[in-house]
Amino acid sequence: MNVPANLKYTKDHEWLKVEGENAFIGITDFAQHELGDIVFIEVETVGETLGKHESFGTVEAVKTVSDLFMPVSGEILEFNEELTTTPETINKDPYVKGWIVKIKMTAPGEIAELLDATTYTTQIQS
Questions:
Q1: In Å, what is the CA distance from 48 to each residue of 5, 29, 65?
Q2: The pTM is what?
Q3: Residue 28 dihedral angles phi and psi, to the nearest 5°
């Protein structure tokens, strides 16, 4: 499994890429592999401010639907519109083209509570 060292991770298999006061959120390579072929992404929270662990949307695969959770508190600034027509981008490139939302963090201190790549890798191998 691909687990980039420059990202932070949650136990629910979301990743966070920090860029200043903003961040990008997606699901991990492990999560997309476990879900299988992704067929639909729903995010109706653009413009809303959500707390850590709140659901910001759902990801639908052929056999299941899973909630997407905020790794840190923030305002949803943007949804990756490319996923509307090509949700399978997450299966092919979960960390670059497959980002799901861009947020403005409201509690950047929460980043310290996230997992680093080594800890996340240990978790998924357990």
A1: 29, 27, 22
A2: 0.96
A3: -75, 165
Residues shown for the chain: 126
Express each pLDDT in 76-126 by its tens digit. 999 999 999 999 999 999 999 999 999 999 999 999 999 999 999 999 998
Tell me the C-alpha distance between 70 and 56, whole Å: 7
**Residue 90: CB atoms within 10 Å:** 26
Rounded CA-CA distance 70/26 in Å is 10
Longest dimension (CA), the chain: 37
DSSP string, 4-72: -TTSEE-TTSEEEEEETTEEEEEE-HHHHHHH-SEEEEE---TT-EE-TT-EEEEEEESS-EEEEE-SS
HSE of 41, CA atoms in CB hemisphere, 13 A: 27
What is the dotted CATH code of the domain comprising 12-111? 2.40.50.100
How far does CA 8 lie from the centroid of its chain? 10
Residues 48, 21: contact at Cβ < 8 Å? no
